[in-house]
Design goal:
single chain, 3-stranded antiparallel sheet, Glutamine Phosphoribosylpyrophosphate, subunit 1, domain 1, 2 helices, alpha+beta, globular, about 200 residues, 6-stranded antiparallel sheet
Length: about 200
């Protein structure tokens, strides 16, 4: 079951040391939105959630809202939520392989603009890179992560258990000393591993 925390305001005003932000999970999806489509309201704030699926998108899609959604209609007015409803309708009404459904749906949507996204059912993370999506894998032995912007180092061994594994997916590399790999098309992750 997902715990969804979303607010339409600025991230700079959030105190992430509060209890609501202190949790552990196999999959965490975070999104900082640059409102290129739709008003800055709760309904337009990522991530979007339908049943057990959660979705966040980076990019702008233009003039594509003529695709059929089925019975799943957006609550807000963003291109992102519309795209999610389209993919979700495909997932719910198609008996094909999930990977094929997501790839074919993404191919339909990316004709209308930039479509980088992450999607999860709580067990598996699907990451689709159109023009700017990267991942890094972390596992023991943990070293340090040198943050791009702050020139600060985080010693991962002090916050990670020796048996932990993690995959981080972002729109641009967050650290300068790790091997970030650009995602082109669909990549699938489960339990800190890239699935083949």
């Amino acid at each position: 079951m997902w715990k969804i925390i979303k607010k339409p305001g600025s991230l700079s005003g959030e105190d992430i040391t509060q209890g609501q932000f202190k949790f552990k999970s196999k999959i965490i999806i975070g999104h900082v939105r640059l409102a290129s489509c739709g008003d800055t309201i709760h309904e337009n704030t990522h991530p979007f959630n339908l049943e057990n699926w959660v979705f966040a998108h980076n990019g702008t899609l233009n003039k594509f809202k003529n695709l059929l959604l089925g019975k799943w209609e957006p609550q807000g007015d963003t291109d992102s939520e519309y795209a999610f409803c389209y993919l979700f309708a495909k997932l719910k009404t198609n008996s094909s392989d999930i990977k094929d459904i997501i790839e074919n749906g993404a191919r339909d949507i990316k004709k209308f603009g930039i479509f980088n996204f992450i999607l999860s059912d709580g067990k598996t993370l699907y990451a689709y890179g159109h023009d700017s999506l990267y991942y890094v894998q972390r596992k023991s032995p943990f070293g340090f992560a040198a943050l791009q912007e702050d020139r600060e180092k985080v010693h991962l061994s002090s916050i990670k258990a020796p048996d932990e594994k993690a995959v981080i997916v972002t729109t641009e590399p967050l650290t300068s000393n790790e091997n970030w790999i650009q995602i082109s098309g669909l990549e699938i992750f489960r339990n800190g591993n890239l699935m083949k």
